[in-house]
Specification:
alpha/beta, 506 residues, single chain, 5-stranded parallel sheet
Length: 506
C-alpha cells in the first residue's frame, strides 16, 4: 500500500494536482500555509462591508477553456460563470473604444468602426484558429511537451498553419498589429491583450499572448465566478473533499524530508512531520530551493536560481457609488478595460524595465459588478486595476504617487471617476508577497514570460515537473504552460507523478 501523497499549497494548481491524485485512488493531503485554500484565488471585503473584491486574480478566460476544469463537476459545487456583455474594451482619447466581443462579427464591426477592412482582416486571421480551437487549446493549455495539439493543428491547417503559429510564438505583438490593422487604435487594442503577460508589445513572444487571449474571448469568453473568484477555489476544494482528499490550513511547510534521495514527507513550521512518498509542490523555484535545501544536485539548484521573476505589481481596489463613467459607452458594458490610450502611448507606457515609472501607467482594470451585482450593495459597484513596475524599487515611498497616477489616468477616459470613489484598498509588491508567497516581489505571473522562459519553465527539460529527488515534483505556474488560472501544471505534474509511482512503486 503506497504511503500518502502530499501537496504543498492549495492554489488552483495544488488543488488540481490533489484532485488528480485522489481520483486515481491515492490518499492525499494538501498543506496550505494560509488560513483558507485558494492561493491567489480569493474574495474578501477589502474596502467596505458588502463590497466583495477579488484579492488577486479575477477574470478567467483560461479557466473557462481549461480542459482540466471542464472535466470536473465544479458547477455541482456552486460555481457559476458570469459573462459580461463585452469581454473587454480599450478606450481611446477621442471618446471611442475598441471592444472584444464573444461574437467575431461584433468584434469585427468594432474594429471596422475605426478603419473599414480591419474587422475583416481580424475575422480572417481568427477563423482557422477558432475552427480548430481544440488543437490550439491543446497546444497552449497542456502538459509538457505539447505533442498532440501541434500535430492536430498541422494536420488540420497544413504546414502553413504550423508555420503561422510558430511566427506567433516567436514574434512581437507590434509586428502582428501592423500586419493586421491599418488603424493605430486597433493596434493599441491588440497590444493591450498582450499586457496580461509581462513582455511589452515590441518584445519577441508577445504576439501569441495578444492573439490567444482574444481568441479565448471568442471561444470561451472572459468570465468571472458569480459572487467572486473564491467560488472557484471553493468548488475545487469541495470536489477534492468529495474524492476523499484532505486540506490542512495554517500548515506551513518548511522542509521536504528525504532519505537516500527519496521523499519521505515534510516538516511543518509548528514542528509536526507529515509522512508521504509523493510530494507535489505548488511553489516557485526559489521556494523549492529553500524547501529542499542541501538535497538538490548543484546543477539543478543553479538552474532554478536562474529563473527570473516578472515585473512588480501595484493593485488598487475601489468601492464605488456607481458605475465608472467611461466616455466610451461600450466600456461601460465591459467586464475588463485596458487603460492605455493610443498606440504610441501603449508602447511607451508598457516599457517598465527602466529606472523610472511611466507618468501615465498602463492598467488592466476589472469592473465585475457590471455583470454580477451580487458583489456589491444595490446600486453600488466594485472595480480594481493593476499596473506593473520594475522589481526592486523603493515601493513604499512610491506607492501613494503611483496610485495618484493610476486614478488620474482613469479619470482621463472616465471624467467623474474620482467622485464615485467611496473607499480604496492598495497593495504594493511587498503587500502582495506578504499575502501570498508565490507572488514574490509582486510578480503575479509566477515568473517572466520572456521568450527563453515561456516554453522551458522553470528550466530546459522534457519533464519540467520532475525534480532530481525521487517522489518530489513541481506543480506550480512556474512550469509549462505557465500562469493564468487553469490548473494544467497541477494536473500534468500529478499525471507524471502517478505514472512514475506505479512504475517505481512509491
Amino acid at each position: 500500500m503506497p504511503r500518502p501523497a502530499l501537496v504543498i499549497g492549495a492554489g488552483p494548481n495544488g488543488l488540481s494536482a490533489a484532485i488528480a491524485l485522489a481520483a486515481a485512488g491515492r490518499e492525499v493531503t494538501v498543506l496550505e500555509a494560509a488560513g483558507t485554500p485558494g492561493g491567489a484565488v480569493k474574495t474578501e471585503e477589502l474596502t467596505l462591508p458588502g463590497f466583495h473584491h477579488d484579492v488577486f486574480s479575477a477574470v478567467y478566460p483560461a479557466a473557462a477553456a481549461s480542459p482540466v476544469f471542464r472535466a470536473l463537476p465544479l458547477e455541482r459545487h456552486g460555481l457559476t460563470w458570469i459573462h459580461p456583455e463585452v469581454c473587454y474594451a480599450h478606450p481611446l482619447p477621442d471618446g471611442t473604444a475598441v471592444a472584444l466581443h464573444r461574437d467575431v462579427q461584433a468584434t469585427a464591426a468594432s474594429l471596422d468602426d475605426r478603419h473599414p477592412g480591419d474587422g475583416d482582416t481580424w475575422a480572417t486571421f481568427a477563423d482557422p484558429y477558432l475552427r480548430h480551437f481544440r488543437a490550439l487549446r491543446n497546444t497552449l493549455l497542456s502538459g509538457f511537451p505539447p505533442v498532440k495539439g501541434p500535430a492536430e493543428l498541422v494536420a488540420r491547417t497544413g504546414l502553413k498553419g504550423g508555420l503561422d503559429l510558430a511566427r506567433l510564438l516567436l514574434g512581437p505583438a507590434q509586428g502582428l498589429g501592423h500586419e493586421l490593422f491599418e488603424d493605430q487604435g486597433n493596434r493599441a487594442w491588440l497590444y493591450g491583450a498582450a499586457m496580461h503577460g509581462d513582455v511589452p508589445p515590441n518584445g519577441a513572444g508577445s504576439a501569441i499572448a495578444a492573439a490567444y487571449l482574444n481568441l479565448l474571448g471568442h471561444a470561451a469568453g472572459w468570465p468571472s465566478p458569480e459572487g467572486g473568484a473564491a467560488r472557484l477555489a471553493q468548488a475545487l476544494t469541495a470536489h477534492l473533499q468529495e474524492l476523499g482528499g484532505t486540506i490542512r490550513t495554517n500548515a506551513r511547510v518548511t522542509k521536504v524530508a528525504t532519505e537516500r534521495g527519496k521523499v519521505v514527507g515534510v516538516h511543518l513550521q509548528d514542528g509536526d512531520r507529515v509522512s508521504g512518498s509523493l510530494v507535489l509542490a505548488d511553489v516557485l523555484p526559489r521556494q523549492l530551493r529553500t524547501l529542499a535545501e542541501g538535497d538538490l544536485p548543484a546543477r539543478y539548484d543553479h538552474a532554478l536560481a536562474r529563473y527570473r521573476p516578472g515585473p512588480a505589481t501595484v493593485k488598487v481596489d475601489w468601492a464605488l457609488d456607481g458605475r465608472i463613467p467611461w466616455s466610451a459607452p461600450v466600456a461601460r458594458r465591459a467586464g475588463t478595460v485596458h487603460v492605455g490610450g493610443e498606440e504610441h502611448e501603449v508602447l511607451r507606457d508598457t516599457e517598465v524595465s527602466g529606472p523610472h515609472l511611466p507618468e501615465q501607467p498602463f492598467m488592466l482594470l476589472g469592473q465585475q459588478t457590471v455583470a454580477d451585482p451580487t458583489r456589491a450593495p444595490a446600486g453600488k459597484h466594485t472595480a480594481w486595476a493593476y499596473t506593473h513596475g520594475p522589481q526592486g524599487r523603493g515601493w513604499p515611498k512610491d506607492l501613494e504617487q503611483e496610485v495618484e497616477r493610476m486614478e488620474a489616468r482613469i479619470e482621463q477616459f472616465a471624467p467623474g471617476f474620482r467622485d464615485r470613489i467611496k473607499a480604496r484598498h492598495v497593495m504594493g509588491p511587498d503587500d502582495l508577497f506578504h499575502r501570498d508567497a508565490n507572488l514574490h516581489g509582486g510578480d503575479v505571473g509566477a515568473g517572466s514570460y520572456a521568450l527563453d522562459q515561456v516554453v522551458f519553465r522553470p528550466l530546459p527539460s522534457l519533464t519540467p515537473y520532475r525534480t532530481p529527488i525521487r517522489g518530489l515534483y513541481l506543480c506550480s505556474a512556474a512550469t509549462f504552460p505557465g500562469g493564468a488560472v487553469h490548473g494544467v501544471p497541477g494536473a500534468a505534474a500529478a499525471k507524471l507523478a502517478l505514472s512514475e509511482a506505479r512504475l517505481r512503486r512509491f
